Amino acid sequence: MQIPETNANLRNERKSMKSIRENVWLWGQEPGGHHASGCYNLPGVNLLDSLGGCRLFGIQNCCRVATDIGPEPPFDDESRKLAGLRQVVWSVLGAGGVMRNEKDTGDLEEVIRQAQRFPNVTGAVFDDFFSDRRMAIYTPEKIAAIKRRLNEGAGRHQDLWVVWYDREIDLKLDDTLKLFDVVTYWTWYGYNIPQLEKYLDRMIAATPGQRRLAGCYLWNYGEACALTPEQMDFQLETYRQYIHRGLLEGIVICSNCIADIGLATVEQMKDWIDQHGDEPVGEYVLPKSISMK
User: Which of 75, 146, 181, 186 is the most exposed place for a label (fewest CB within 10 A)?
Assistant: First the structure.
């Protein structure tokens, strides 16, 4: 499969985003949310909130996503906390357990209200979207209507984001994917990390002209265990290469929900941002060798 070395549309979209650090986002959720499920075998206790997560990693962008433990509308208090960040994207459809107004338009009207009140709200995201339940409700026609309402209601352009997982790579999604401005692609299973480039290339081929970010987990959620240092290094260096080639815009760190529980991957992420965060995006840097041991 041939993947172009550069993406002119992507470069035009990010003219104001000059460094890797400016293209790093936090996947912001309620503290304790990932422990609450009881299925990921996480150690420790999580108290760090979304703003604290952004400060920890030294970044200015947050996808603020509702889970089944919150927040509940209105979102004003949380938006006020995040008002000093560069960009905030709120979830219209939260994590898979959030079924609030799911058969209607989710939290669309509340997200519009946040965009009206807070200038740094720049979009909305569909989390955990490609399930049979949600796709049956949200047809391409309904997604297009939500996108129009989002922009008209906010009174300015808002990007519509979506989450796409490695486990969904074989789904036929052409008519749906093209409706989103931003695609975030997530490697849920640690055992797929050695094949990361193959998966990314398939994702890129399916999203011509769209903005793309890679979700970067700090824990192997699919196998309910820690990522190895080699797995973490490999995914970070792979993402760096793809960013410099213009094939990815940036990464989304998941998440504040586990950033204060003593994981080695958190320190690896911080070190990576410190080392590479000021590198100009789009200037190809000959990468160090990357390999999985």
Answer: 181
